[in-house]
Design goal:
Blueprint: H1 2-21, E1 36-37, H2 38-42, E2 46-58, E3 64-67, E4 70-71, E5 77-78, E6 82-86, E7 96-98, E8 101-103, E9 108-115, E10 118-126
Parallel strand pairs: 1-2, 6-10
Antiparallel strand pairs: 2-3, 2-8, 2-9, 3-6, 4-5, 7-8, 9-10
């Protein structure tokens, strides 16, 4: 009977750890956090630097957004969940382009502060 109680406690503890670690990001080969996704970052406010990972798109009007996914097209478009980015280091990223739009084929990591749903970048890393 004692072993059964111990197993239940262990399972409960693992469940709590899994719940609280969701969305925390994982480390990459270079030991840096891969950051959180755009959807997770949208509800945050932070004067501390956070890393957000997503596909970058620069529209003809100069607006820059990060998206969790790109929808196939010519050019690809961000999905419905996007975050405006200001101060992106465009030279740190490899871009594809077409029809006046630029985008990344792989997710990038942007570190910065978030206020009112806008990520103000202080570091950019292509993947």
């Amino acid at each position: 009977m004692r072993l059964s109680s111990l197993r239940r406690c262990a399972v409960a503890l693992l469940a709590v750890v899994a719940i609280f670690s969701t969305g925390c990001g994982v480390s990459t080969e270079d030991g840096q956090s891969s950051g959180m996704g755009v959807e997770s970052a949208l509800g945050m406010q932070s004067s501390e630097s956070l890393t957000v990972t997503g596909f970058a798109v620069i529209f003809e009007n100069g607006e820059v957004v990060l998206a969790d996914e790109l929808v196939n097209g010519a050019p690809p478009e961000p999905d419905d969940i996007t975050m405006e980015v200001r101060g992106l280091d465009e030279d740190a990223v490899t871009w594809e382009s077409g029809n006046g739009v630029r985008w990344t084929e792989k997710p990038i990591r942007v570190t910065g502060t978030i206020s009112n749903g806008v990520l103000t970048a202080n570091a950019t890393k292509g993947e």
